[in-house]
Amino acid sequence: MVEQPFEIKAPIAWLPAGLISWYALDGLPVALVTSWVALVGGESPRIRTAWHGRQVPLSRFWDGGDFVLNVPYESGFSKIRQLMGSGSLFLDAEVDLGQTCAAGVVAVAPRLLDCAVQIECVGGKLINTGFDVELCGDVVLLHRDKVVIDPVETPDLCAIQPLRA
Asked: What contacts 24+ positions apart, CB below 8 Å, involve 98-102?
């Protein structure tokens, strides 16, 4: 009998789109990998993203909580994909990801400074769509390469690199 080599396959079949970060109940900056993001600009900019953390007890997110959507540089995505290969979606932002964290300017949530874009959001709400859970919130401030961008002054959120198609 010829044995076939055993191949380890990643338990997660999608690519990451970014990291949602917030403070856990003990104040620890945590992050959750998300698979997609929808941005709506205009007078009341909003964000909606996949929420894959409902099965991890430490990833509890409360209605009305603030969060930051962080979009890493390509090198950061490589590390995230590596962690996903072990089945990890919920991460300690500093230990697992090696990220430098700073408090949000408006949102009470950690910004991951080693990411290309950080989008501060308030009024987070988990919505069960019947298919999967989604997180939505109001966009209050954006950071792009350490430049602060007011979403009211720049309503076309998709024009911000690397979010542009």
From this structure: 99/29, 99/31, 101/21, 101/29
CA–CA distance, 86 with 46 (Å, rounded to integer): 32
Burial of 19: CB neighbours in 10 Å, binned 0-12, 13-18, 19+? buried
Band the pLDDT of 7: cuts 50, 70, 90. Answer: very low
Cα→Cα distances 164→39, 74, 142, 160, Å: 11, 14, 15, 6
The pLDDT tens digits for 48-78 are 998 876 555 555 677 789 999 999 998 888 8
- Give the tokens for residue 42: 């205009």
Cβ neighbours for 100, distance < 8 A, ≥ 6 positions apart: 94, 112, 113, 114
Taking the whole predicted model, whether its pTM rises above 0.85 is answered as: no
| Whether residue 2 has pLDDT greater than 80 | no
Domains of the chain, CATH where assigned = 18-159 (2.30.110.10)
